[in-house]
Write a structure and sequence with these properties.
4 helices; three-stranded antiparallel beta sheet; about 15% strand; alpha+beta; about 20% helix
């Protein structure tokens, strides 16, 4: 499910990789490499190692990476299909001592739109710079932003990256 308006940068193209076992599942934080979108972030962040300082938020259904603020990354978010999942994710991230300031859930009244958990500075409004400004706010590389604006699904990293 692709969120409308928000969430253009963080949602994997397929959530099939994000499935979790439904047997006796307990929501919890895991190492970042356990997240289904870990490689997605490593390929797109200006500082790929920043993904390693994140945490995987494991909820009933899928495990998503939460990348902390820092460096060029001023804010972040992860989107959840249910409000209950978003509230659980916010509560789990609140236990992380650094990197997730000003945690908040943005409830969506539209059934086809996910509920994002946001942290850090508010993202720029679309009319304040468009998708490229949002990409910079979330710490994505110039190559990732350019690829996104061209409609590419995977940016190519140069030898210097």
């Amino acid at each position: 499910m692709r969120p409308l308006g928000m969430g253009r940068w963080l949602v994997p193209t397929s959530v099939n990789d994000c499935s979790a076992s439904h047997e006796r599942f307990q929501p919890r934080l895991l190492p970042p490499q356990a997240a289904c979108d870990y490689d997605y972030f490593r390929e797109r962040l200006d500082d790929p190692l920043q993904a390693d300082s994140g945490v995987a938020v494991a909820l009933f259904g899928r495990t998503l990476l939460a990348v902390p603020v820092g460096g060029k990354r001023r804010g972040g978010y992860a989107s959840y299909e249910s409000l209950t999942d978003a509230l659980q994710a916010r509560d789990l991230l609140a236990a992380v001592p650094v990197g997730f300031p000003d945690l908040r859930v943005r409830w969506s009244p539209d059934a086809d739109t996910c509920h994002p958990v946001r942290w850090g500075d508010p993202a720029p409004r679309y009319w304040e710079g468009g998708d490229d400004a949002e990409g910079r706010h979330h710490g994505y590389s110039d190559n990732a932003i350019a690829a996104f604006l061209r409609g590419c699904s995977r940016p190519r990293r140069s030898a210097a990256d």
